[in-house]
Structure of Sulfate adenylyltransferase subunit 2:
Amino acid sequence: MLQSDYTTSQLDVLEAEAIHIMREVAAEFERPCLLFSGGKDSIVMLRIAEKAFWPAPIPFPLMHVDTGHNFAEVIEFRDRRAAELSARLVVASVQDSIDAGRVAEETGRRASRNRLQTTTLLDAIEEHEFDAVFGGARRDEEKARAKERVFSFRDDFGQWDPKNQRPELWNVYNARIRKGEHIRVFPLSNWTELDIWDYIRREGIEIPSIYFAHTRKVFERDGMLLADADVVNRDEDEPVFETVVRYRTVGDMTCTGAVQSNAATVEEIIAEIAVTRITERGATRADDRSSEAAMEDRKKEGYF
């Protein structure tokens, strides 16, 4: 029977674009890698990489910049998923950077290792001579992202300058770099948080359990619910209580907040996100509650 409906869905278009980008990188660069934290965006990138090169294995390693303060459920998922795919997993440790004197541990109530990741990431890129690094950034996260291209050029210091971005005409990408320079590649640039969840639903992709509603001990700070954990500094005026929460994004426990939610399935999460007016990072990332200019300055220093 001949196919009568040739309509291409939005997810099909986004997936096809991301597959094209990954194949382009694999063809043009010598040592690409994919940043894989075990979070939903990197999980979607991993599924796209599977499809892009199937039935061959993924032709580049996975890398995670591990602060040492990540959620245990996510680290378990990261390791298991990499093993299932027989993928090489490179773990760049912030603790190793601290021990080597490359960065200094923050102290105080709001101490976090999140900002320290930049040095660890750049050191790992230099050590392994990666010339292209896939990131899961989306342009609906914060305004500074919208100034980047799909191929985001970084100089030999790992710095980003919006004035040095190369033009991208349709799907023609400039991959020319000198030794020491590299490109951050964002295959999900045109995706939204809702697109990510729609894709997870369509593909039946497994994700870490903390994305779903569960009971957890938390405390409130600046309108956010942070996990009660040994690595999170909490004052006496921040009482711990138990409630039902889920995480919209995952990262360092010291700056990643939970949201109160009863969404226990992907369908319920999609329904919840469809009506919310607060961005993912605005609701859950304490370190990203800064101005557009401040975020741009962090990116210029080599931040993700």
About this structure: The mean pLDDT is 89.
